[in-house]
Amino acid sequence: MKKFMCILLAMLLMVGALSACSFKSLKKKSEETAKNATVEDVQPASSTMITEDQLKKEGEKVILTLYFADKQATKLVAEKRFVAKSSVTDINETAKVVMAELFKGPISGNLTSPFPKGVKIPSVKVEKNTAMVDLSKEFVEKHPGGSTGETLTIYSIVNTLTAISGIDQVQFTVDGKKVPEFKGHLDISKPFKAKPDLIAQENKEVKDDKADKADAKDKTDKEGKQGQ
């Protein structure tokens, strides 16, 4: 009996020792896992660091004014676009950036691009106060034509480029040569100046509605003062 008790006690001691070892091992593993998780959680999404001067430089933007067609394809509507100041170092670079942004199409869902799809961006260079825009033959061939369509296409470019300080007019060529007309409706042999009357103005009904609301507010304010 005494021998049996000694064996049982020895077994219990062994089980206890094994349990303690397992617990210490598990605890150590858990601590390492937790430590690793913490390190991973605090790591930045990007290891790229920039200086304060670089951050300031990146924050310097230039506002471009681009003109796209409205949904009815009857008027041009201005859309503002921001680009890095470093990308517009001179008037020629500015004109190229403007054309690239214009041919990306509008951001607003209420506007449409007046240009044919799948054509390369026309080249542009500035000579004195004139922007020389060279359209490709493909650009002309893919254009659907029509008096209004041609007008919106040409003046989208003209009004956009002449919004750049130093550019007063735009001369078009096709594959490097002057041509008498675009698609049968518009003479493009001579330089174009901006056409402000093609730019959509605030809807008259909207203006009238605002005026009515303003009058109603004034009337309410007067009645309120009289009742005091």
Name the structural class. alpha+beta
Classify the helix fraction into a percent range: 40-55%
Gyration radius, rounded: 36 Å
Q: Characterize the biggest β-sheet.
A: 3 strands, antiparallel
Number of helices: 6
Number of E strands: 6
End-to-end CA span: 108 Å
Structure write-up:
- The protein has 228 residues and is α+β, with helices and mostly antiparallel strands.
- The protein has helices at residues 2-42, 52-58, 91-102, 137-142, 147-161, 204-227; strands at 61-70, 76-84, 111-112, 123-127, 130-135, 169-174.
- The strands form two sheets. A three-stranded antiparallel sheet has the order 2-1-3. Strands 4-5-6 form a three-stranded mixed sheet.
- The longest helix has 41 residues, at 2-42.
- The protein is globular and about 105 Å long.
- The protein starts with a helix and ends with a helix.
Summarize the structure.
With 228 residues, the chain is α+β, with helices and mostly antiparallel strands. Helices cover 46% and strands 17% of the residues.
Keywords:
228 residues, alpha+beta, 3-stranded antiparallel sheet, 3-stranded mixed sheet, globular
SSE blueprint:
Layout: H1 2-42, H2 52-58, E1 61-70, E2 76-84, H3 91-102, E3 111-112, E4 123-127, E5 130-135, H4 137-142, H5 147-161, E6 169-174, H6 204-227
Parallel strand pairs: 5-6
Antiparallel strand pairs: 1-2, 1-3, 4-5
